[in-house]
Amino acid sequence: MPAVLTYNRMVVSTDESERADALFHALADPTRRDILAVVLQDAQSVSDLARRYPISFAAVHKHVGALERAGLVTKTRHGREQRVRGDVATLRTAHRLLDDLEGLWRGRIDRIEQVLADPTERAPQ
Amino acid sequence: MTVISVVKDADARTLTITARFDAPIGRVWQVWSDPRQLERWWGPPMYPATVTGHDLVPGGAITYYMTGPEGERHGGWFRVRAVDPPHNLDLDAGVADADGTSSPDTPTAVIRVALSEVDGGGTQMTIATSWASDEAMEQMLATGMEAGMTAAVGQVDELLGLSAQA
Fold first, then answer.
1. B113 contacts in A (CB within 8 Å)?
2. Minimal Cβ distance to A101: which of B34, B41, B129
3. How many other C-beta atoms can be found within 10 angstroms of the C-beta atom of residue B95?
4. What is the DSSP string of A80-96?
C-alpha cells in the first residue's frame, strides 16, 4: 500500500537530530562523498582508498571514520587489512532513496514556481 | 502550498508528486518545452543545469549536464517516449559521463508528467518517477543524486547558521 504523506513541520528527537548531524557532516565534504561513491560499488581497503587521493593515509582514515559514524559505511577485517564498504542498510533502502527523490522534486517544484513568476520568461500563449 | 500530494510506493519503486501552479497550462508546459526554462529548475542551486540538446518529439533526446561547485560536470539525458503538448510527457531518464555519453547498461528511470487545468484557473502537474529494479534506483540515485544531497547539506548549514544567531 502506498503511503500518502501529509506535511507538517517535523519534530525530531535528539537521537535523530544527532544522527542527522553526523550524516550531513559526513556528506558535506567532497572527498568523503567520493569515497562513499567508490565503496558503494566495491569494498576497498583504506590503503586502496589512500592511493586514489592526494592526501595522507591518516586523512583518508579520518574521512572513513566520519562516514562510519554517520552509518554510511561499515568496516570489516579481511586478513591484515580492514575493508570499507557502503552500508546497505543506511543507504540502500527504497524508502530512504524515495525520501531523497522527494526532496529533489520538492526543490524542483519550488524553482518551477520561481520560473513561472518571472515576467521575463512569459512568452506569448 | 504548491505541492499538494506525495505518494511513495516502495514496492513499485515509484514516487508520485503533485503540485498546483497559479499559471495557465500552456505557460506551465513551457518549463519542459523551453530548454532555457528547463535548465533554470532541473539542477539544484549548487548544481545548475545546462541543456545541450532538446528534441521534444517521440524518440527525441534531451541532453544536459550539471556543473558542481568545483566545476565538475554531471551529465544526464532524457529520451522522449511520448509527448502530447500541453498535457503529457513520458521520458526515460539516465545519467551520462561528463562528456554526455552514456553506457548501454546505465540504469534508467521512467518519468511521466501529466498536466491538467484546474477549475477557477491554474494548472495541476503530476510527476511520477519509477525504476525497473532496486539496483537501478540505487545506482542512479547514488551517482546522480549526490547533487541533490549537497544542496540539502547547504540548506541545513543555512538553518544551523540562523539558529546559532538566534
1. none
2. B129
3. 21
4. TEEEEEE-HHHH--HHH
ipTM value for the complex: 0.80
Q: Is B132 on the interface with A (CB under 8 A)?
A: no
Which position has the grid cell 503529457?
B88
CATH number at residue B58: 3.30.530.20
Give yes or no for a contact between B5 and B128, defined as CB atoms under 8 angstroms apart. no
- Say how many domains are in chain B: 1
pLDDT tens string B42-98: 888 878 899 999 999 999 999 998 887 788 887 888 999 999 999 999 999 887 765
CATH of domain A14-121: 1.10.10.10
pTM beyond 0.80: no
Range of the domain at B96: 3-165
From B124's Cα to the closest Cα of chain A, the distance in A is 12
DSSP state of B6: E
A111: number of Cβ within 10 Å: 17
Chain B residues close to A101, C-beta within 8 Å: 15, 129, 141, 145
Domain boundaries, chain A: 14-121
For B46, the grid coordinates are 549548487
Calculate the CA dihedral of residues B45, B69, B48, B137 and round it to 10 degrees: -90
Contacts of B133 in chain A (CB under 8 A): none
Read off the C-alpha cell for A23: 550524516
- Mind telling me how many Å the CA of A97 is from chain B's nearest CA? 7
Residue B67 at interface with chain A, using a CB cutoff of 8 Å: no
Number of A to B CB contacts under 8 A, please give it: 115
